[in-house]
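Researcher: Please predict.
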Amino acid sequence: MPDFDVAVIGAGAAGLSVAAIGSGLGLRVALIERGRMGGDCLNYGCVPSKALLAAAHAAAEARRAGRLGIRLPEPEVDWAAVRAHVRGAIDRIAPNDSAARYRGMGVEVVEATARFTAPDEIEAGGRRLTFRRAVIAAGSAAVVPEIPGLGAVPFLTNETLFDLEERPAHLLILGGGPIGLEMAQAHAWLGCRVTVIEAAPRVAVREDEELADGVRAALAADGVAFREGAKLLRLEPGTGADRVVAVLDGGERIAGSHLLLAVGRAPRLEGLGLEAAGIEAGPRGIRTRPDLRSVSNRRVWAVGDIADPEGIGPRAFTHVAGQHAGVLVRAMLFRLPGTRVDYAALPRVTYTDPELAQVGLTEEEARAAGHTDLRIQRWPLSENDRAIAEGRAEGLVKLVATPGGRLLGAGILAPRAGDMAGLYGLMIGRRLPLSALASMVLPYPTLSEGGKRAAGDFYAPRLLSPFTKRLIGLLKRLP
């Protein structure tokens, strides 16, 4: 008889969810974690980055209060106190993810490195654990690219950025994706000079270009400098406070005090002993079927950043880990046929200010997927009463729909755009027509009205058509 019904490798968002559900259903569960409970999200990612952004946002609001007639002095940034706030946010949430809490649920927590030694066996902390099912939730880590000279200069990743005891004088950020842009704006607001170096033609290259331009403009207004389409030839040690020099194609040399690598994520595959268990993996992660079951070992499943479902691909978002846990419960525990991952309504958010939220397909993605006839509905925040009242009227709601009114995607550039994304995810997931949004009664005044107005415009040509006008002309004669 196996030691455990389910052995989970990794106590990040995905692993914790699976362990809690499995134990709650009465299964014998082992949870193996070599590092900090809570994984990247709690310790190095979502929580500390949003805590830092909150502190930075407070400084930014003080600076721009003048737009509302409130004159405030330049805010004083106490870097030690900011770090304490970030650490405090982690510490306050940590008990929810702690080993003690999960042991209290009946989970056997093994604080050690896990390595497969057979198709149904894991070695951890000197113990051999046999299992009926194993779930690999080891997550991903920041990519450290091969750049000439990188070994000779100090650099940061998301795992070390929040430990800085000094405020960077000039932060060089390699990578203009969500992490790079969020940290660029946060540090600029906190009084740092910031330069973003991006090899692609533009930053936020995965996002709708129209909305990404708005993010770029906002960061540029905050003092962030950009080098887009820039090939980094090499890195060199600097002198004095400028400890790093980035040498770009064309000869430009940019000296900075700190360098942050934010060029992407890679699955944590090393050391897992996948070969001993016959588990196939590639550069993008562990190869699984759409139901997250390994293509080569039927006892093994993969969830979170490390999973690479066939025909779908990986997604490095914490909320995907929660979605994967739900798929696993249906497919692995309840054995429900036809269960599979579906990212049609998946939201993603870049937490700058304004935020850029995308649910479903962008216009470019929809056309690439074969939707040649689209209806693009826009509503600018310059026409939204709440945005005008708050002096924050820059932004846009952009809906991508079929000619019949089925929503394929929604992009939102607005303050707290992420808080509005759920509505569009529900519409796409439930295949609701734009008429459902257009007929909603929303509280006034709110930014959410932008989407309703965009949806309403979809039906305006029909409502104001010659046929409708003739019909109204006939109906007005009725008593």
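Model: The longest strand covers residues 127-136.
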